[in-house]
Amino acid sequence: MQGTTLTLRMIVLTAALLVLGGIGGLLAQFLRLPMPFMLGSLASAALAVALFQHGALRDYRFPMRFRTGFIGLIGVMIGTQVEPELLREAGDLILTLSALAVFVVLAHFGNYMIFRRLGGYKKATAYFAGMPGGLMESLVMGERAGAELPLLTAQQFLRIIIVITFVPLGLSLWLGHPVGSAAGLTPSAPEPVTPLALLLIGLAAAGGLGIAKVIRLPAGQITGPLLLAGAVTLTGAVDLHLPFWLIAVAQVVVGCSLGLRFSGMTGAMLRRCAGLSVISVLWMLILGAGFAAALSLATGLPFLQLMISYSPGGVTEMSVIALSLAANPALVSLHHVVRILFTVVFMGLAERRLDLSRD
């Protein structure tokens, strides 16, 4: 009986948060803010946490399986953008992916100095808080190395949140108009979708998630559905293009789950971590812009695509930004998956040679 009550409470709270996030997304859209459904829902959930974390939302955890399903839908959406041109850019991709390894090392070194010198963090905390990717991996590795987990968790989540806030705002100012919601679709012209199409989209997401789990793909929640949908799209046999409303709902789910990460943070801790995160993110964005400019000259690839590819946000969130600009989201997703791989491998190897326990 108690288990049923707890489950019912979780369902009710989740539904209420999603409704609140949807309202926040619509309000952000009305205000013509960039990425309205993701940022509006994120802000709404963060506000709910600030008001109710010691009341109705105490001990509440967002259902991650539910979130995973919608991330899978975003992966399907990105997979439908895969075109033969991506394969023809293989020569350029070798250069841009190789440069990504240098970016990861420089970004991490700068972040370590920021958190160590400016923040006064312990070596282990500064080291893993500075990882420019691999959120969950950084938490697991950091805890094992003796890092201060609350600080590490706050810094890693704030990195993603600040990036997905700064980048759309910056792009909106640069482009002269708000960054849209998804792949050029607008609320005024939604695409019709049949029950059969919805079924195929759901099967592609579920199948991709299953494949990713079996073969242990990195960032498998999005890469598995992406690869499966991309393969199906290239055959030309099935059209899996998602309607606007489904992508908007997926963004609300992701935004709400991110906003809830503010739970448990005190005002003083949040101000301290946010200030350091802003400096860290600015360092990585400036560094990424330099790489993007140089690689754009060397390869002819658009600066915008490369800038998003080198922005240190989460795979899902940066892929959504790429979708909103139709900026070759498959290429962007590839770079972010590789960034996470480089980060986890390099930092893991370096950790074995460093004594992070001594301050």
List keywords for this structure.
359 residues; mainly alpha; globular
Helix content: over 70%
The number of strands is 0
Mean pLDDT metric: 82
Question: How many H/I helical runs?
Answer: 15
**What string, H for helix and E for strand, traces the elements in order?**
HHHHHHHHHHHHHHH
Strand content: under 5%
Gyration radius over CA: 20 Å
**Largest sheet: number of strands, sense, barrel closure:** none
Query: Which segments are poorly predicted (pLDDT under 50) over 5 or more consecutive residues?
Result: 181-190
Structural class: mainly alpha
The rough form would be described as globular
Distance between the termini: 51 Å
SSE layout and pairings?
Elements: H1 2-30, H2 36-52, H3 64-79, H4 84-88, H5 90-118, H6 123-129, H7 135-145, H8 149-175, H9 195-215, H10 220-235, H11 244-259, H12 267-299, H13 303-309, H14 315-325, H15 329-353
Helix pairs in contact: 1-2, 1-11, 2-11, 3-9, 3-10, 3-11, 3-14, 5-6, 5-12, 5-15, 6-7, 6-8, 7-8, 8-12, 9-10, 12-13, 13-15, 14-15
